[in-house]
């Protein structure tokens, strides 16, 4: 049971809430309270737009425990427009080929469930941008 | 007891309207002919073309979050001002644990908010809207969010399997002055009519076949619509658009004609042939499709139907704020045209119909 961990991470997972450094304005994700750029205190919450592009990607066929039902699935390094890079699953790909540089947007999806009786874990994934005009 | 013909409509002290709206329809489509192929049924009288199916990582929580974000993008308000997040559905992912708290947390509405899940078959969404009208209209809240969303269940091979679909919509209700559509009045009609139900531990619902028609769908919708129009001194020709709950293509068209509406008035909000019956979201995505194209100062009649049974009727009038706000988020047809066809086997996998143990 990892209920407390899921609960602590819910804001960043559900809505991409990170931090912005009040000293050098660097946007930080995941939040770490110390700016990786200037090493000052950085605890100001920051809502990321959720828009970014695929920096690199791979397809997982042998999924780790808890993710088997979704296999095969694609995991990408996504570079957010605000700067940080994060790892996330891509979803709703349909028949579209994935390409490096492909514009994507964040959606909140079911990541996994802790067994049939356990909690459902939700968090960010990325999908091809629904409408280009959302830039 | 007799039915009172002189019933006052539901009207709050303060005028209320829709400040923002958002639809969500998942990407995958299961054609009705594919269900017919597997169950060796004829394809002559299929009631729809295809239905929308949720992906493996989607449920009422994730779909509600996206619809709510679209509604917020249109409204452009601070989510911490929302005082109620209400989700109506008959497919809440948990039996005990609110859908609404996850949605409220995801959109930044927590913690100064009411959160609750609503249940009344296919009218749980309009029921949440009725309550939100009361919440805002009584000045208890400035903004309240009402959502109708479903990933509907149908037993394999049952007639419901052709139509039971996934999707829905969110409506942010607030003061009429800043609304894109003002709610002129509403009315609810409910009786104990067991036309369709699902017992607590059952996976799939039961339905009364022909009993779902006359005493259920038609009686409740016509009663709700006629009472509201009569009380508002309006007639069908006063409305540019009308949206009914749409379990199949035939019922909403027929009830429209019974009430005196033309097919032209029904057309824009009739999505069931291409997305299926999205239950608690059914009439509501019809409303989002109408709001996507309606001109200012047009009148819209919305009549939901929920088995068990009841109907909520609402009369709306669009405002001059509608045209600029609708472009701030994806429209209903942006989701409908994002379409990936799947076969029955993939559908069975996505819906957990393949048992692994």
Oligomer: heterodimer
Count of separate DSSP helical elements of chain A:
2
Identify the overall geometry of chain B: globular
Greatest interface: A-B, 24 and 23 residues
Uncertain runs of chain B are none
Beta-strand percentage of chain B? Answer: 15-25%
Number of separate helices of chain B: 13
Radius of gyration of chain B: 19 Å
User: Helix/strand-derived class of chain B?
Assistant: alpha/beta
Radius of gyration of chain A from CA coordinates? 16 Å
CATH class of the largest domain in chain A: Mainly Beta
Indicate the CATH architecture of the largest domain in chain A.
Answer: Beta Barrel
H/E series of chain A, N to C? Answer: HHEEEEEEEE
Could you tell me the mean pLDDT of chain B? 94
Mean pLDDT of chain A equals 93
Task: Characterise this structure.
The complex is a heterodimer of chains A (135) and B (357). With 135 residues, chain A is mostly beta strands. Chain A has helices at residues 3-8, 10-15; strands spanning 17-20, 27-28, 44-47, 51-60, 73-80, 85-90, 103-113, 120-128. The mean pLDDT of chain A is 93. Chain B has 357 residues and is of the alpha/beta class. Chain B has two domains: 16-180 and 329-350, Peroxisomal Thiolase, Chain A, domain 1; 183-324, Peroxisomal Thiolase, Chain A, domain 1, CATH 3.40.47.10. Helix content of chain B is 32%, strand content 24%. Chain B has helices spanning 32-38, 60-75, 99-107, 124-137, 160-163, 213-231, 250-259, 263-267, 272-275, 282-291, 322-326, 332-337, 344-350; strands at residues 16-24, 28-31, 50-53, 82-88, 114-118, 143-151, 166-175, 181-193, 196-197, 206-207, 241-244, 299-303, 308-318, 340-341. In chain B, a hairpin with an 8-residue loop joins strand 9 and strand 10 (206-207). In chain B, 55% of the residues are buried. The mean pLDDT of chain B is 94. Classes of the chains: A mainly beta (135), B alpha/beta (357).
């Amino acid at each position: 049971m990892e209920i407390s961990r899921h609960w602590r991470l819910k804001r960043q997972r559900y809505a991409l809430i990170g931090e912005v450094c009040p000293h050098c304005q660097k946007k930080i994700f995941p939040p770490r309270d110390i700016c990786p750029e200037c090493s000052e205190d950085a605890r100001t919450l920051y809502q990321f737009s959720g828009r970014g592009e695929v920096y690199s990607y791979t397809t997982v066929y042998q999924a780790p425990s808890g993710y088997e039902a979704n296999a095969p699935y694609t995991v990408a390094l996504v570079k957010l427009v605000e700067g940080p890079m994060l790892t996330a699953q891509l979803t709703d790909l349909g028949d579209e080929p994935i390409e490096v540089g492909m514009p994507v947007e964040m959606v909140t999806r079911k990541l996994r469930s802790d067994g049939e009786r356990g909690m459902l874990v939700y968090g960010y994934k990325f999908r091809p941008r629904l409408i280009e005009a959302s830039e | 007891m007799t039915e009172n013909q002189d019933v006052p409509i539901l009207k709050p002290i303060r005028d209320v309207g829709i400040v923002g709206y958002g639809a969500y329809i998942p990407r995958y489509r299961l054609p009705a002919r594919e269900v017919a192929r597997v169950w060796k049924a004829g394809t002559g009288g299929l009631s729809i073309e295809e239905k929308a199916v949720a992906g493996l990582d989607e449920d009422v929580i994730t779909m509600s979050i996206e619809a709510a974000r679209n509604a917020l993008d249109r409204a452009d308000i601070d989510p911490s001002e929302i005082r109620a997040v209400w989700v109506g559905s008959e497919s809440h992912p948990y039996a005990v644990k609110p859908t609404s708290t996850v949605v409220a947390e995801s959109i930044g509405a927590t913690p100064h908010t009411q959160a609750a899940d609503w249940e009344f078959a296919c009218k749980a969404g309009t029921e949440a809207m009725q309550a939100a009208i009361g919440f805002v209209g009584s000045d208890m809240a400035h903004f309240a969010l009402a959502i109708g969303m479903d990933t509907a269940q149908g037993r394999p091979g049952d007639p419901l399997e052709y139509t039971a679909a996934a999707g829905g919509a969110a409506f942010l209700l607030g003061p009429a002055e800043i609304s894109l559509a003002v709610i002129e009045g509403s009315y609810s009609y409910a009786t104990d009519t067991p036309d369709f139900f699902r017992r607590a531990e059952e996976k799939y619902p039961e339905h009364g076949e022909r009993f779902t028609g006359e005493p259920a769908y038609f009686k409740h919708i016509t009663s709700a619509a006629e009472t509201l129009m009569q009380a508002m001194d309006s007639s069908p020709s006063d409305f540019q658009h009308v949206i009914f709950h749409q379990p199949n293509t035939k019922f909403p068209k027929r009830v429209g004609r019974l009430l005196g509406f033309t097919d032209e008035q029904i057309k824009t909000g009739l999505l069931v042939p291409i997305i299926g019956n999205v239950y608690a979201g059914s009439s509501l995505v019809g409303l989002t499709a109408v709001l996507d194209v309606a001109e200012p100062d047009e009148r819209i009649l919305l009549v939901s139907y929920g088995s068990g049974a009841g109907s909520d009727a609402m009369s709306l009038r669009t405002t001059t704020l509608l045209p600029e706000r609708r472009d701030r988020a994806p429209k209903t047809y942006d989701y409908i045209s994002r379409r990936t066809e799947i076969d029955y086997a993939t559908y069975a996998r996505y819906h957990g119909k393949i048992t692994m143990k």
